[in-house]
Design a protein that fits this description.
This protein has 310 residues and is an alpha+beta fold. The chain has 9 helices and 13 strands. Helix 1 runs antiparallel to helix 2. The structure holds glycine (GLY).
């Protein structure tokens, strides 16, 4: 069953015209991440590379393509976690870099801290030699159009804030049985400046522990934080539930207790995996034993050879 990589391209209401882009992006990122695992690479290298691919793809709400805050600016959150050591690194409200997930990894590898935020994260990025990119290079026409639409007097605030998310994330188990996770996002549309979401918070946007498994989550960040969704799912797995049942239980708790919707990808140490959503859509892909599994709508599950380039 090992190695295995499961990724998501965010839960939310995915407009029909963007569905195919969302599907093909996760399939292609899964192939790249899985190739690292097949070559004997680490789970951490695989999840960071898969998420980097999605950050570079303007279809998703992470890196280039991030949603805009209330001032029309890009502030991004990202996290990585190593299930062997429980080492973790995160950045929040970071600006002007292409790949927040790589900066999160640098926080884990090069500092004694878990999370750096805003100006401090940017200062650290400069010290590490991470290239600064103009904000405009992270903003797509689509993100700008949606931001303007949300400002219209007839905009529906719930629809505009929760409707079309696209956080990205990955979980993996490598051939040595080490587990890792990574999540990256531009956050929620029209968020207040300085808002920190679930993605940068350990146990909320992601968690990995070699003894239990790993989760990467997507959805309404404030709801995810209130139930510490990723750690809650791993708690259910510690109690003996499968990755799939535990994921559904965690998502059901988030819906019933705080009215939040979202999705997760989950693995256990044996390589059993799940991609679960509550109510909305989520593009996902899983690579295992040379097979690529993928889907977008609830209940959808396609399979194809990992070598099939489509
Ligand atoms: N789950 C992404 C966010 O709310 O920031």
């Amino acid at each position: 069953m090992l190695p295995v990589l499961v990724i998501h391209g965010g839960a939310g209401l995915i407009p029909k015209e963007r569905a195919e882009l969302r599907r093909s992006g996760v399939r292609s990122a899964a192939r790249v991440g899985y190739a690292i695992l097949q070559g004997g690479g680490s789970a951490m290298d695989a999840v960071v590379e898969a998420v980097t691919q999605l950050e570079n793809n303007p279809t998703y709400n992470a890196g280039c393509g991030s949603v805009l805050n209330v001032k029309g600016e890009v502030e991004m959150d990202a996290i990585v976690m190593d299930g062997k050591t429980l080492a973790c690194g995160a950045v929040s409200a970071v600006r002007n870099i292409a790949n927040p997930v790589q900066l999160a990894r640098l926080v884990m590898d090069k500092t004694i801290h878990v999370c750096l935020t805003a100006g401090g994260a940017s200062q650290f990025a400069r010290a590490m030699g991470v290239p600064e990119v103009p904000e405009e290079s992270l903003i797509t026409d689509y993100a700008r159009m949606r931001w303007k639409k949300n400002k219209a007097p007839d905009a529906n605030p719930m629809e505009s804030q929760m409707g079309k998310m696209g956080t990205v994330g990955a979980v993996a188990v490598d051939v040595e049985g080490n587990i890792a996770c990574a999540t990256s996002t531009g956050g929620m549309p029209d968020k207040m400046e300085g808002r920190v979401g679930d993605t940068a918070c350990i146990g909320c946007g992601a968690y990995a522990d070699n003894t239990v498994g790993a989760v990467s989550s997507t959805g309404h960040g404030e709801a995810i934080m209130k139930v510490t969704l990723s750690r809650l799912i791993l708690f259910h797995m510690e109690q003996g539930q499968s990755a799939e049942v535990a994921s559904d239980l965690g998502l059901a708790t988030m819906k019933s207790r705080v009215g939040g919707l979202g999705g997760v990808v989950t693995v256990d140490p044996q390589g059993r995996w799940a991609a679960c959503i509550s109510g909305q859509q989520m593009s996902w892909a899983a690579a295992q034993k040379d097979t690529l599994h993928h889907g977008l709508y609830t209940g959808e599950h396609f399979t194809q050879s990992i070598d099939d380039p489509h």
